[in-house]
Please model this.
Amino acid sequence: MSRLLYIAPVRIGEDGAFERGVEEAARPENTVDLVGFTRGTEHLEYHYYEALTIPDIVHTVLEAERQGYDAAVIGCFYDLGLHESREMATQIAVTAPCESALLLAASLGSTFSIIVGRRKWIPQMKANVHHYGFGDRLASFRTLEFGVLDYHKDEAETERRFIEAGRKAIEDDGAEVIVLGCTASAGFYQQMQDVLGVPVIDSAIAALKHAEQLVEIRDRFGWKTSKIGGYETPPAYEIEQWNLREEYGADTITNRWRMASPVQAG
Amino acid sequence: MSRLLYIAPVRIGEDGAFERGVEEAARPENTVDLVGFTRGTEHLEYHYYEALTIPDIVHTVLEAERQGYDAAVIGCFYDLGLHESREMATQIAVTAPCESALLLAASLGSTFSIIVGRRKWIPQMKANVHHYGFGDRLASFRTLEFGVLDYHKDEAETERRFIEAGRKAIEDDGAEVIVLGCTASAGFYQQMQDVLGVPVIDSAIAALKHAEQLVEIRDRFGWKTSKIGGYETPPAYEIEQWNLREEYGADTITNRWRMASPVQAG
Amino acid sequence: MSRLLYIAPVRIGEDGAFERGVEEAARPENTVDLVGFTRGTEHLEYHYYEALTIPDIVHTVLEAERQGYDAAVIGCFYDLGLHESREMATQIAVTAPCESALLLAASLGSTFSIIVGRRKWIPQMKANVHHYGFGDRLASFRTLEFGVLDYHKDEAETERRFIEAGRKAIEDDGAEVIVLGCTASAGFYQQMQDVLGVPVIDSAIAALKHAEQLVEIRDRFGWKTSKIGGYETPPAYEIEQWNLREEYGADTITNRWRMASPVQAG
Amino acid sequence: MSRLLYIAPVRIGEDGAFERGVEEAARPENTVDLVGFTRGTEHLEYHYYEALTIPDIVHTVLEAERQGYDAAVIGCFYDLGLHESREMATQIAVTAPCESALLLAASLGSTFSIIVGRRKWIPQMKANVHHYGFGDRLASFRTLEFGVLDYHKDEAETERRFIEAGRKAIEDDGAEVIVLGCTASAGFYQQMQDVLGVPVIDSAIAALKHAEQLVEIRDRFGWKTSKIGGYETPPAYEIEQWNLREEYGADTITNRWRMASPVQAG
Amino acid sequence: MSRLLYIAPVRIGEDGAFERGVEEAARPENTVDLVGFTRGTEHLEYHYYEALTIPDIVHTVLEAERQGYDAAVIGCFYDLGLHESREMATQIAVTAPCESALLLAASLGSTFSIIVGRRKWIPQMKANVHHYGFGDRLASFRTLEFGVLDYHKDEAETERRFIEAGRKAIEDDGAEVIVLGCTASAGFYQQMQDVLGVPVIDSAIAALKHAEQLVEIRDRFGWKTSKIGGYETPPAYEIEQWNLREEYGADTITNRWRMASPVQAG
Amino acid sequence: MSRLLYIAPVRIGEDGAFERGVEEAARPENTVDLVGFTRGTEHLEYHYYEALTIPDIVHTVLEAERQGYDAAVIGCFYDLGLHESREMATQIAVTAPCESALLLAASLGSTFSIIVGRRKWIPQMKANVHHYGFGDRLASFRTLEFGVLDYHKDEAETERRFIEAGRKAIEDDGAEVIVLGCTASAGFYQQMQDVLGVPVIDSAIAALKHAEQLVEIRDRFGWKTSKIGGYETPPAYEIEQWNLREEYGADTITNRWRMASPVQAG
Model:
């Protein structure tokens, strides 16, 4: 049995938009806790919002590691904080939706398109797609022409836009697989898949499944983040000497957590 | 519970070299059967050997699908028959070591090196690495300077060569992760990992874990090979009209199977 | 004088569609024989069909080498069996339409488009274009929206589609050269060229001319496939020990040949 | 006359190591102020340290914009916070050493090598080099084999290592230009240049000159960061609604500044 | 104070089209002289025209160096003669519009489109864009559908076409920055910028500003073209021995100059 | 029967170094004339030398076209004047060694190395290799460490250096094919090939064979340089109006020719 923490890296209310079944995607023997923040932004469309949030993400991952979680999932398609968290973590596995969805899509078709909300998001996401190695497989980005907070305002309209964007991606751009490029897309993939006839990847679920896989291979085969090179962890004495944990709120991170009730998956 | 078939796509004896614990890598609820062939080549270092073997691989995958297997793993780092099998399969998941190992390595470090037997193998494998999207992350290929059939002749010597090649990859080429580029490498990764201090991926195990993951996401989320585009399956009437199954031995494929006893994993 | 064998790697009838003048493209001093198969598929749109056919292709090339042919041309734009044949051959030159057409197109314009039958074909062909090094020069793929067997059903309609696709490639996609991405395209390039005003490469002819060139440079300058590295030929004792020639029908390949009459070219 | 702010994005003492003449590199009509932080890390070798620091960088840039500065230079070769700052800024120009040095090196030779402290730094910097478009021109990274804080411990030794690394880059790797990949390299380029005979770019100076250039073209030609697409600025009402400035210390950023005395350049 | 020479590498009349304010873009302390040729072509749309002109360009640069100019700007977006001039020059800085504009655009947005006159120009310019490293950032080329000599025939029509092309580049192709890919575009960028709302780079101005920057860094930091590798200057004795200066008109180059009056910039 | 003109684009003496059998490489039915220049440089190691020579090359090609030659070969591995000549030519085929050798090498192995004289040459040649599409196949450049004029001073020493460089390319860099990157390499390939056991391409011969092929496909299939796009020929009236032929010596080009006696090939 593994324990996973799904981080919605935004300020959330009681009925956080992310509590839409991602935890049901876990393997039956695993448990998923859901955490959001009591401060910050309600979406992450801007890089500034990312920058403000990343320290809390990394500290949340570190606290999760301290609490014995096996994995943490950073629930935003910008994959913000992923590299920083893997650098700091020594035990806990960390994943994020873009990387996970692309690694999955790579086995399901020769090309994929990513459906996002607004054009604004594309440059950073495209840079990530190239960095992850899938630039040649990217058929296109397609936009819904609205922002994160609009995804669930009128779900019938959102679904209509998703299906239209997906159809154009398949027919005009040559996509064989569709990736939903925002964790706010939760709840739409199945209907799209039925209508479009190609796999439609919910990237939040992809990240969760990827996390479970990384935990399993860590525990059974000892495969975890390489600590030689880019993911080398900083020395503890520096962190202590510069008082980083106190100065940047690492010690009080749980005060800024807003947990949803743990759910027994499966 | 899922049933997986691990295919050693070579002519094997009673004590087939591939029966070295890959089945133990499965999730506890899954079972893995092992099958090799009674004809063909004992290794696949040459593209001609691949060409002779691919039809039997595809027919084995199709027969496995007919028998209700959930996944088939093609046990050779050339990933031969992978695309053909995915094209033909409509239910069964199919994986192969190179793709699976690289998709895994991608989350564990920023660069990787692949250790192979002989220089001869590199061009095709390198083309695969680039095709899969990981050309920019490839630190190097390193060779053991002997062939597949030599891997288990003197295992102490093989281990020595593996560790030397791995050390050069890490120190001289900048590798953060090591991938063992041959399924004959079974049994060596753990010791290497202990000595070298970076993750060392046994690609046969990676392919098995990837297969389990693909089965799970197929069953739970409906995500399976896209049938629009490159993996479109040929029409049944053509296969029948041209008598392909009989002509190319698809119907008699089990006669050319050599099964090892199924093993309850875990 | 050189002898070339043009292989139509499909099951052909008495009036095989490939017998459409490719042999007339040879240099006057050379002879071209045409061979198809008595079994197999009538087209090669699917990778499974390719896999079934490649062993017969390689064995045909080897038999041609034994019979003293100077070159073999594999008549399918997927270039199936090309690498395997070059690996096995020690004397005979081997070419295939995609590689040959692109190497030719490279000197005739800065960009090219490839006109194929169906979208299904594109991913593998695109991978080949990238592998051959011409990804940056590829303006587009354009489809006729029908399969190989439809090319000669209504030739006026096919020509109309070819010209429309070519025009879009030139005007919308920026193509300077058109490549016909199927050997079933035989007979159309000249009319297209007259109408479109750019070079239109019949890839089957390109492969034949390339073969003649490779023969000439082999005979005069000793330039032939490098046997150090990826094209190293397997050792004869393995082939004998594993009884590969008998097991896979190499010895009986001529029984599956269907020859068209040799034609004195020129 | 333009006013520039050079940000040493680290915790600095009275005699901050960055106060080594970068301000003297300005055009005579411009003034450069130097600011560091009273909290944070003393170097930025780790991505975690970057993550902690980026919010203070962005807020410093915004405060500089409010105070009428024309440009801000982010003094670290990781270019941390550059994209975020450009997204937020509407008037002030922002530069950072890696981008600036490469844009400069591009006109001075066909290839360049970057000399860094430790291997740890390379993956992120290499990703930046590729992202900026200069992957094909990168001859190599070379390391000094020590960290940022060691650069000025024994300057004779550092210079020796710099010259040795530079020589290997030129002779073994084919570099035509050397880029010093750390702002702690201040003070070494001239001696290296004299010894090695190729341009040696001090990237901190490059960033300052680039900043002056961006200010000039902004003022005279109206050329500044595009606000359509990736650098779109978030709406003010969101920042206010979520109380971001107070919550993340934007309003108190000057409390965490440590200024060096402004210097009249030239 | 620096002296720059702006070379309009075409046959010009008294009212040369290039005399449209580029000299006003200089820093106030610098002077810009403008020179064109009394022979040659009136535009450079064809590579043959480039070939004829390059020797005069290089000799002009060398003569400018002899006369004490600090920089020379080659005023054509093909950047013809840039590499040759840098190879020959030992003191004078040399720039050209395409390189300069792209180096500038790189800091202003994540993508750019280039607006040119005719399709004919695109292949060479595209090759340059890739060579300079910005292939991944190139959103598109857009054409005005007329030649260099038409730019100023009906400026209202030209402006209309520029704005239409720019709008398509921004909306359909995803451009964040517009680059005007011909020095005949002088005079249009400001109006376009106002209408389109993104930076519109006049590449002739970009080249001038880049030249000033290169002069400044040469004089202050000693950074100038590397002479190890691709820009190595030929030995003087060869030039003398083969009588190249006389044979190719280097000594009489000023006879073929047509100067516009020097203008005090600023 | 076709007539080819091999252009040694250098000032040559009576016993021009290029007269070393390239004409013997022609098909027996073809004739090859050899022409060099009475002015210019004796080698082309510098881009300036190229620039001076290109107009004479293009005019030579045009004169050859006028005289009824079928093809012109530009005998320098920089491929100088190739694009310009193809732009101007409407009938005559034009080739050059680098393009031709790489197009040939592409069919003979998966990787190649180029052996050049000096490091100086590499950046431009490497840019060409990438432009031609073979960057991924380039194993390395290796240098002989001397210039063009040294190739035939001590041929035993040159051969020794060639073999040493070739061996390192094969063993250390993974080359499967060797390309001799200078037409001064004439006479060495056969011995190298015997010793090294891989194909060694004499690029001058490759260019000649390529030219013959282009002539044949032009005459028989109408395939010649596309005139839509990058190779569009300038309008005759411009050339006349600006008096280009007289001004740049096109009309007197034969006065600067130095012909070697025509040789009946074969």
In short: The two ends of chain E are 12 Å apart (CA to CA).
